[in-house]
């Protein structure tokens, strides 16, 4: 009776549980924490979307149970978006399911298509649900390189030839969380051709499709001819329209996979609150100037972070997309690993970051920095870090931590 439950035992330790108590303790002691760790957008949802929610919620009929796969108007709005943005034609009745955010969609897709022992190929590092969804479902995860290049393609071939049983699915995530890698059409085409030949499903996470910089919009894998035969792609309203708490996302693509997801969801939920779905449809159908404004704000924050942290002595590669920078740990702290370095930063600078190891063991020499504070706060974080990097205290703490570990 006291043994741990089977599915819970399969889950690895949640790294961020080590960081959150340190942040809470520091805040309780009056420390001003500049939190760049969690990817929780600070920008408000655009007023016209909130207004549509307020208008719709006044109708008592919208307070009843909704549709698990999403109301027709929302699915049609998503189909129109894919047509405008990617030139991909979708049938809203058979090729689209509205989800409670992309995270729920991934988890339920894993439940729908995998059996215990099935092998799934997942980038490492990557967003945790890409692995955890299949781990919870009883699957086996095999790590792939995260960067979309020739090594990825060689690793894909090795994994298929040497995995027993043969992998059932490959996860793609570009623009990538946490690494911010972006994939080209040529890369997608090679992956699609290979997976079609070997009968492997592709599950693509495109949550950051609209968070890009320097006028270089990412593409969808569904733009590749033949991709629809094997692919489902997940998107989200969370970052595009600053609606993270609203929990609205989508799965689109192959009819067989979409039907499996819709069947599982029909047993588990009645969909999002109808007024939220109506407001989400309004957002997709409306003026996208608010999306352009979001991009400009994040690009300014990105540029301020790269410039100010660089002057502080911490060089950060500028990401081409997403709301994150994937930053190598400064050389003098590299031996600590990302978790101990993140703890040290909170204690000594009041700056919180996400340890790279929380996204997979191959992320342990990095931390993720989110653009969720304004420019003034980002510059303050850089000043705090500059003082720390140049201090004898910082060097002493490294020696002390090495001794303790």
Largest sheet: 7 strands, mixed
Number of structural units classed as domains = 2
What is the architecture of the largest domain at the second tier of CATH? 3-Layer(aba) Sandwich
What's the count of strands? 12
Low-confidence parts: none
User: H/E order of the elements?
Assistant: HHEHHEHEHEHEHEEEHHHEHEEEHH
- Distance N terminus to C terminus? 35 Å
Detailed description of the structure:
The protein is α/β, with parallel strands linked by helices. The chain has two domains: 6-44 and 290-404, Aspartate Aminotransferase, domain 1 (Alpha-Beta Complex), CATH 3.90.1150; 47-285, Aspartate Aminotransferase, domain 2, CATH 3.40.640. It is built from 14 helices and twelve strands. It has helices at residues 6-10, 16-28, 47-57, 72-86, 101-113, 129-136, 150-162, 185-197, 255-268, 274-285, 289-312, 337-349, 375-389, 392-404; strands at residues 34-35, 96-99, 119-123, 140-144, 169-173, 201-205, 231-236, 249-253, 324-328, 351-352, 354-355, 366-370. The strands form three sheets. It has a seven-stranded mixed beta sheet, sandwiched between helices. It has a three-stranded antiparallel beta sheet with strand order 9-12-11. A two-stranded parallel ribbon has the order 1-10. The radius of gyration is 22 Å and the shape is globular. The two termini are 35 Å apart.
């Amino acid at each position: 009776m006291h043994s741990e439950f089977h599915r819970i035992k399969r889950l690895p330790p949640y790294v961020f549980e080590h960081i959150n108590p340190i942040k809470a303790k520091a805040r309780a002691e009056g420390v001003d924490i500049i939190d760049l760790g969690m990817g929780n957008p600070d920008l408000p949802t655009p007023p016209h979307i909130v207004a549509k929610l307020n208008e719709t919620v006044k109708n008592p009929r919208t307070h009843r149970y909704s549709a698990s796969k999403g109301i027709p108007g929302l699915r049609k709005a998503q189909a129109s978006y894919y047509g405008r943005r990617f030139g991909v034609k979708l049938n809203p009745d058979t090729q689209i399911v509205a989800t409670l955010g992309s995270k729920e969609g991934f988890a339920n897709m894993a439940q729908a298509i995998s059996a215990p022992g099935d092998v799934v190929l997942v980038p490492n590092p990557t967003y945790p649900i890409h692995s955890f969804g299949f781990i919870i479902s009883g699957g086996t995860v095999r790590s792939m390189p995260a960067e979309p290049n020739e090594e990825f393609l060689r690793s894909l071939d090795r994994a298929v030839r040497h995995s027993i049983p043969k992998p059932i699915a490959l996860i793609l995530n570009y623009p990538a969380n946490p690494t911010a890698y972006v994939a080209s059409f040529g890369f997608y085409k090679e992956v699609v051709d290979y997976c079609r030949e070997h009968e492997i499903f592709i599950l693509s996470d495109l949550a950051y499709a609209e968070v890009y910089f320097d006028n270089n919009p990412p593409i969808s894998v569904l733009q590749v001819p033949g991709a629809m035969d094997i692919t489902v792609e997940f998107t989200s309203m969370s970052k595009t329209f600053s609606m993270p708490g609203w929990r609205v996302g989508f799965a689109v693509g192959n009819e067989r996979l979409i039907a499996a997801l819709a069947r599982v969801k029909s047993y588990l939920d009645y969909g999002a609150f109808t007024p939220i779905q109506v407001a989400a449809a309004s957002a997709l159908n409306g003026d996208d100037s608010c999306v352009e404004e979001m991009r400009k704000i994040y690009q300014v924050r990105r540029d301020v972070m790269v410039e100010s942290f660089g002057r502080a002595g911490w060089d950060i590669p500028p990401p081409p997309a997403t709301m994150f920078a994937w930053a190598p740990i400064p050389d003098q702290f590299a031996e600590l690993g990302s978790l101990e370095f993140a703890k040290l930063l909170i204690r000594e600078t009041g700056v919180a970051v996400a340890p790279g190891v929380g996204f997979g063991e191959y992320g342990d020499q990095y931390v993720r920095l989110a653009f969720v504070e304004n420019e003034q706060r980002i510059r303050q974080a850089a000043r705090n870090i500059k003082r720390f990097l140049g201090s004898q205290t910082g060097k002493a703490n490294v020696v002390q931590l090495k001794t303790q570990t």
